[in-house]
Amino acid sequence: MERTHVVKNIASQLFVAVTLMALPVRLLHATETALVARGRYIFALAGGCGCHTAERGPVNAGGRPLKTPYGTFYGTNITPDPTYGIGGWTDRQVIDAIRLGTRPDGTVMSPVMPYPAFSGMSDEDVTALVAYLRTVPAVARANTPHETALPLFNLLMRVWRWVFFAQPHPPATAPREGVERGRYISEHIAHCQECHTPRTVFGTLDRSRYLAGNPDGIDGEVTPNITPDRETGIGDWSENDIVTLLREGFLPNMDNVQGLMALLIDGIPAGGYKDMTEEDARAVARYLKQVPPVVHRVTR
Question: Which of 44, 153, 261, 295 could be disulfide-bonded to 271 (CB atoms 3.0-4.6 Å)?
Answer without folding.
Answer: 44
